[in-house]
Every structure is written in C-alpha cells, then in structure tokens.
Write a structure and sequence with these properties.
Blueprint: H1 3-11, H2 13-22, H3 26-40, E1 47-50, H4 57-66, H5 70-79, H6 85-96, H7 98-108, H8 112-130, H9 136-142, H10 148-156, H11 162-177, H12 181-196, E2 199-202, H13 213-221, E3 226-229, H14 232-242, H15 245-257, H16 262-267, H17 273-282, H18 304-331, E4 346-347, E5 352-355, E6 358-361, H19 380-394, H20 397-409, E7 410-411, E8 413-416, E9 419-422, E10 437-440, E11 443-445, H21 447-460, H22 468-483, H23 497-502, H24 515-519, H25 523-532, E12 541-544, E13 558-559, E14 564-566, H26 573-579, E15 584-589, E16 592-598, H27 604-610, E17 616-623, H28 634-654
Parallel strand pairs: 1-2, 2-3, 3-7, 9-12, 12-14
Antiparallel strand pairs: 1-15, 4-5, 5-6, 8-9, 10-11, 13-14, 15-16, 16-17
Helix pairs in contact: 2-28, 3-28, 5-6, 6-7, 8-10, 8-11, 8-12, 14-15, 14-20, 14-22, 15-18, 17-18, 21-22
Length: 662
C-alpha cells in the first residue's frame, strides 16, 4: 500500500479508533464489509411522494395503506389467475383495514378456521414478496415483537420444500388453534403496509381546508421513515405557533371560510368562544353575506343559525387580520408591501375602494370596528380578543408538539436520489436567472442558499438561544413567507383576499404568478435550477406541488420534457371540481417513476364493506434502462463510503496501527 494511504491512516487514526469500538477486530470488520456490499446489490427501495394533503385524513390514510395502488398491483402479480378478482379485492381490503375487515368476516364466514388457514398462507405470500428487496435485518426491525419469530420463519421457509412443508403447516395450524389468528393477521397486514413503501416524502401543505391535519400528523408520528418540505399552509400554522398574530388570524379565517373548525377546536383545543361572542355582538346587524362559507362541508351542511354565526366570526377575524397584517407591513417597509395596507384605501364616506386614483365599487362598507382616521388600529375589544386567541395558540401543547415534528422532519428543500424536492417556487428573474431576495437586513440570497437560509430563519423563531432581535424578526417573517411577492412559498404579485371579499370588479382578484411558474415548462430553465442546486445525473428532476394541476382542462403534471413533475392534483375536496381529479401521488421504485392519478375517495366504510378502492390511473413517467439497486442511490453512496472506511480499518489492524480486540 502506498505511503499516501499510510499517511491518511495516521491522519484518520482518531476516527479509526472510534470505529474500532464498533468493529473491534478483522473478523467483525470483514463481516460488515460483506454485509454492506450485499446490500448495495439489493433493488432500490420504493419512495412515495405526496403533496398538498390539506387535512384530508381519510384519503391520505387510504393512499398510505394501499401505497398508491402498489399493494393491489402486488396482489394481482402474485396470484394472477389463481383466484377470482373478488377474492383479490378481499385480500387488499384486509391488508388496508385488517381490524375492521376481520369483524365483517367473522360475522359472515361459516368455517372460520378454514378461512384463517387459507388467508394466512396468502398474506405470507404477499409479505414475502414485498420484503424480498430488504435484508433480513431490516425486515426483522419492521416485525412486531409478539410475532417476530413466527413471521420470520414463515417468510423464509417455503411450502414447496417437502422437508419444510409440514413445519410451515404446523406453524399456521398452531396460530389458528391457539386463537391468535386475528392478532397474527393484523400484525402481518401492518408489516406489509410498512414494507411496501421504504420512504415517504411529503411536499408540503398538511394543513387547512380539510378536517384532519392533526390526525395526519398523529399518523406520521408512528410512521417509520418520512420527511417534509414545508408548504405555505404549514408555515402559516408554524407562524401561528410562534406567536405571529397575523398568522393566527389567517389560520382561523381559513378554517371559518371552509366551515371547518375540527383541527382548531378538537385537534388543538383552541378556544374560539371569545371570537364567537365578539362577532355576534359586533356584527349583529350585519348579514355578513359574503362571509357565508361556500365550500364543501360549509353552509349547505349547516343550519341557518350556524351559518350566520360562522359568517359573523369569519368577518370579525378577517377585519382583525387586515389590521394586524398592515401593522407588520408598516413595521417592515423593506418588504415593499405597503400597498397591502388595504384598509387605508377605503373611502368610508363614499364607500369606494381607491387604488392609484381608480375607484372600485365595494360589496359592503359595514366596518363598525374601523376608525377611518386610523384604520389599522385595533379597538379595545379587538385587542382583548387578539390577546385571548394568542394565548390559546401559545398554550396548545399538541399544536407545539406537531410543530416540533415538522421542524425535526422538515426543511425548505431536499435533494434525494437526483431529485430536487420543494413545495412551491424558486424565485427567478424574467430571463430565468436566479433572483436575489432580501432575507434580513443586508442579507441577500438566491437559489439553494435562499432556501437554506430561509429554513434557518424559520428555526430561529423557535430557538430560545437565538439573538432576540433576529428571533423577533423571524417571527414576523412568517407573514412574508405566507404572502410576500418574493417568498419561495408564494411568489405572486399579491394575495387578493381583501379584493375577493369586498370588491365587485373581478379584475382586482388577479394574483400574477412569479417567473418560476411562467418559465417552468422550459427544460433549459429547469436544468439551470438543477445545476444551481448541485443536482447531478442524467435522470435528475424537480418535484413540487403548491399549484393544483387542472387535469380537466388538459394540463399535464409532467413538464420541461419530463424533468419537472407537479404532483398537486387537488387532494382537498374544495379543489375537486376545479381540477377534475382528487390528487396525484408519485411512486419511484427500482424500475422507474409512476405517477398515479386518483379519483375521489368515497369512505373508509365503503372500502371495508364493499371492497371499494380509490380509483387510480397509473402512467409511466420514466423507466430506468436497468433495475436500480441500492448502489445507485444516495444511501448507496453512503454505504460505499462506509465500506471504504472499514477497508481502511482492516489495513490499520493488519499493519499494526491499531490492535485487535477479541
């Protein structure tokens, strides 16, 4: 071995000494090298990409349970024409919802022991298939303690081996005869669910619109391997948890807009009684017509009294929001958002809205809490209300626990296996070059550095040891991230919330998209972004969400000659009529990419009782020329580095730099 390598060992001796504690001799280091080299030759694990869940827990849960149709595909491949389609549907439903399906089976089956025997054999076959691309060690870690030994034996002993057939049969007979069939079936179904997807990527927006954001996060808490690239709605809730009053108002307003207070009240225990009391008194003579919820789960499902109260609360929080937002825009003129101090543009005497000398008709000009001479000032009652709402958000233990989860699993962007993941946008100039954005004081960033520093700014808001001035700014900055023109999570000319509520001229509703959204069909532009982020490889991509793909209008989710994939297809019920579908998910397995287009999910009850599944259409986005192995992934690069370190450790042992321990 050359002198250079000897010199490297001497330089790295401290690290090698630490490594020797895990691998104390040549035998153990060699065994680990053999193990890692073997793992490099396994097929690549399946990655699952979802975006813009917007609180749709039932649909999210089902997509996760059926792995975007992957389990159904596996069952069809394994059993082919051996069994009827109806039986295959039953197997799939059992895997998705084992507890509930078993209750139905026990009420209907006459020979339950026979059913148990047959079904356990079938589930073992499915489990054997989905576990085949993993090491025994990894599979073992996914097994429940109660049945780890039994499942492992069944996975690795085959009934076509005559010497072992009776052994396998004896195990299954014992499971049934000891009354453990239900527990075993539930356990192996959950193992199948865990193993069919290796890694889950969520490209933002867990919160708002749907009723179950807190349930999604509860479910993710027990999920094995996931990450999130924060979306604008996630940031809004993070800002609310950090104590940004404008974010708190926005969170509540959106919940009232969609007549959905489940996450706020039941999920996080936020007390909205003070808001209801204030709204009923303040707007008792105001019909609040434009604030009646119109989305699914809204007014059509509410009685008149509830709809009116919701509308009153909706208007009260909206006016409060416009005031506290304007105060922040005034506090931070560097944001260049003074034009969004919207209440200052109202001519209260003539009841018109005036911008750049042009007048616009208003739908209503009933603002009992606004002083025309100081429109952004909160009344005494509004301030008391804001203080109570602020306190409620600060004291919600579960909300803060979920925000800590987002911080520990998330960031603004991620680069995984040659794919650049982010929620919304990379700010660009008109010519497609990266746009510099001022983040704090004289700090200007673009591209990857802008994403990274924004993520650091977000974390600053939650760190007690950060500079007090910077921490306060970080707390304020959540509002800019939500609606600022150069925000990487918004990137539009304005958020026309006020205009939609109060102005009759629909031309004022227009929110002009930033250059990223105008240019992202151009392969050259996408390549430039990928280069700037250091994403290498001929098969590299950008994957993001944020803006729903209007499939019903012919819009395609795959852009820039296949290099960019937008997977926001409208999970939220509020978007179904607009997009024509109920969301996309992207699956990246060892043979390539598959984009799955989903129809609306009916209900868990339908899935269990009638075996209905989300109707999905799968399109091949890109297939690999060869089956991808772990060696082709980021994990593979990490394992190769470990192998190199272990080989260096072997050299150190064999040449006397370190002594072996027996």
């Amino acid at each position: 071995m050359s002198n250079n390598i000897q010199y490297d060992i001497e330089k790295d001796l401290r690290y090698l000494t630490l490594l020797s504690h895990s691998f104390p001799n040549v035998a153990e280091a060699s065994t680990e090298i053999i193990n890692l080299q073997a793992i490099l030759n396994l097929p690549k694990g399946t990655e699952h990409f979802l975006a813009d869940l917007h609180g749709e827990f039932s649909a999210f849960q089902h997509v996760l349970k059926n792995a975007s149709g992957n389990i159904k595909r596996k069952v069809n491949e394994i059993f082919g024409n051996e069994i009827r389609d109806a039986i295959k549907r039953d197997i799939c439903t059992l895997i998705y919802y084992p507890e509930q399906k078993l209750e139905l089976v026990k009420a209907q089956e006459q020979d339950l022991d026979e059913w148990y025997n047959i079904m356990i054999y079938r589930l073992v076959r499915v489990c054997r298939d989905v576990s085949s691309k993993y090491t025994r060690s990894k599979v073992r870690k996914a097994l429940p303690a109660d049945f780890a030994y039994v499942i492992e034996e069944l996975l690795h002993e085959r009934t076509d081996d005559l010497d072992k057939a009776a052994y396998v049969e004896g195990i299954i007979d014992s499971i049934v005869s000891t009354g453990r069939s239900d527990d075993f079936i539930i356990a192996i179904c959950h193992v199948i669910q865990r193993l069919v997807i290796d890694k889950l990527h969520i490209l933002g927006d867990i919160f708002d619109r749907g009723p179950g954001a807190h349930l999604i996060l509860d479910m993710l808490k027990g999920y094995k391997d996931w990450d999130i690239q924060w979306g604008n709605h996630d940031i809004l809730w993070m800002g609310a948890a950090a104590g940004n009053d404008a974010c708190i108002c926005n969170v509540i307003r959106l919940s009232l807009r969609y007549a959905n207070l489940t996450t706020i009240e039941e999920g996080y225990g936020i007390n909205l009684v003070p808001l209801a009391t204030f709204a009923m008194e303040t707007y008792k003579d105001d019909p609040c017509t434009v604030f009646i919820p119109k989305m699914s789960g809204g007014a059509e499902e509410m009685d008149a009294k509830s709809a009116r109260l919701t509308a009153q609360m909706h208007k009260a929080i909206a006016v409060l929001q416009f005031k506290v937002e304007a105060q922040l825009f005034r506090k931070h003129p560097e944001w260049k958002m003074l034009d969004r101090c919207v209440l200052e543009n109202i001519d209260f005497e003539r009841k018109v809205y005036v911008v750049d000398g042009k007048e616009y008709e208003m739908k209503t000009c009933c603002f009992p809490t606004i002083d025309p001479n100081n429109p952004n000032a909160l009344t005494e009652d509004e301030q008391a209300l804001m203080d109570k709402l602020h306190h409620s958000f600060m004291m919600s233990e579960k909300l803060h626990k979920h925000i800590r989860m987002l911080l520990s699993h998330g960031c603004m962007y991620s680069i995984v296996n040659h794919n650049l993941l982010f929620h919304a946008s990379v700010p660009l100039n008109e010519d497609g070059t990266l746009r510099e954005v001022n983040l704090y004081k004289d700090r200007n960033y673009s591209g990857r550095e802008l994403m990274h520093q924004t993520g650091m700014m977000i974390r600053t808001a939650f760190q007690a040891d950060s500079d007090p001035e910077e921490r306060l700014y970080a707390k304020d900055y959540f509002l800019y991230l939500w609606c600022g023109p150069d925000s990487i999570l918004f990137d539009k000319s304005k958020m026309a919330t006020f205009e939609r509520y109060f102005l009759t001229d629909k031309t004022t509703f227009k929110e002009e998209k930033g250059n990223y959204f105008k240019l992202r069909d151009d392969e050259r532009i996408v390549d430039g972004i990928l280069d700037a982020f250091g994403v290498e490889g001929s098969d590299r991509h950008i994957i993001n969400g944020h803006v729903p793909v209007h499939a019903s209008s012919g819009e395609k989710p795959v852009k820039a000659n296949g290099k960019l994939m937008v997977i926001d297809g409208g999970f939220s019920q509020a978007y179904h009529a607009e997009t024509g579908i109920a969301g996309y998910t992207l699956v990246y397995h060892s043979r390539g990419f598959q984009l799955v287009q989903h129809e609306p999910f009916t209900s868990e009850e339908d899935a269990i009782k009638r075996g209905t599944d989300i109707k999905s259409t799968t399109q091949i986005v890109e297939m690999s020329a060869h089956r991808m192995l772990v060696a082709d992934t980021d994990k593979g690069e990490e394992l190769k580095s470990q192998v190199a370190d272990l080989k260096e450790l072997l050299y150190a042992y064999r040449h006397g730099f370190l002594k072996e321990k027996r």
